[in-house]
Design brief:
two-stranded parallel ribbon
Length: 296
């Protein structure tokens, strides 16, 4: 079904930009308005939401949303509310990062020949090693960008990144001459692991969050991810190496992962589904009829 749509262009994601888009581009017969909402300071999204009043929203960068919110709650002294949102952010990271990592691990042997062709078989192992980075980088981003920066501790971000860079450089010197590309991959994973671990050390020391709670709340994602990985491996063994086979594996893995989470009654996933369904069930507001039209 097609709709007459008005869309914000370029970087018109501020109140002035959105107002200009409406004034210059929106026609009387427009049925859908798609707007990009950008944020630089605390409260920017709230102001834009009041202007746009969206029926649906797509968050393209969780950190962009979380940084001003955590900063706001921190300045207002609402530490419990700040922790609640951070715990949700960690769970959301596990929800998405775990299946991506297990998906790369299980589909690498199909992905490499499909996208790179013959002769690149060594890249399979590299992708499988690198798959761990998806989870580690996700966690370190929450630690550094969603906790340390909004609470005014950028120095901790600097320390973790600097230590990680030093570890990476030292391991590269040691591992690359002996293991070539595999050594570089292992060095990168270990270095990112150090960045993540050091961030959690700072969190424990400052008593910001209960680190045990962060990881205990993620067990369903690890179970679902491991089961998905095993299922994809089994299906892959009887499928040819083609683009369509790779697409089938990806879809099959995603369905299996989220189905297992539904069976395990994961609160985050179920809550997200309910929120989407409630939005879909909402009836659009009725537009009052033009009285002048009746008189004419």
């Amino acid at each position: 079904e097609k709709y007459r749509v008005c869309v914000t262009r370029g970087n018109f994601n501020t109140p002035l930009g959105i107002a200009r888009t409406i004034a210059e581009n929106m026609t009387d017969d427009a049925e859908v308005f798609i707007a990009e909402a950008g944020a630089r300071y605390v409260g920017d999204i709230s102001v834009l939401a009041d202007i746009i009043r969206p029926d649906y929203a797509v968050v393209t960068a969780l950190g962009t949303v979380m940084i001003p919110r955590v900063s706001k709650y921190f300045k207002e002294g609402k530490n419990d509310l700040m922790r609640e949102y951070l715990y949700k952010s960690y769970r959301f990271t596990f929800l998405l990062a775990v299946p991506i990592a297990f998906g790369l691990l299980s589909t690498a042997s199909t992905l490499v020949p499909v996208f790179l062709g013959d002769g690149y078989e060594p890249c399979v192992l590299l992708i499988q090693v690198f798959s761990a980075l998806v989870i580690l980088i996700g966690l370190s981003n929450v630690n550094n960008l969603q906790l340390f920066v909004p609470t005014g501790r950028q120095n901790l971000l600097t320390v973790t990144v600097t230590v990680g860079a030093v570890v990476n450089a030292v391991l590269n010197v040691i591992l690359i001459p002996r293991f070539a590309a595999t050594g570089a991959c292992v060095a990168s994973v270990i270095a990112e692991g150090v960045v993540t671990l050091l961030g959690f050390v700072f969190i424990i020391k400052a008593k910001d969050l209960a680190v045990g709670k962060i990881f205990l709340s993620s067990w369903k994602y690890w179970v679902a991810g491991a089961a998905m990985c095993a299922a994809v491996y089994a299906v892959k063994s009887v499928m040819p190496i083609t683009v369509w086979a790779l697409a089938t594996l990806i879809v099959f893995g995603a369905v299996a992962y989220f189905l297992i989470l539904l069976i395990l009654r994961d609160e985050l996933l179920i809550g997200s589904i309910k929120a989407v369904l409630s939005r879909l069930k909402k009836k659009p507001a009725e537009v009052p009829a033009d009285k002048n039209a009746d008189n004419n």
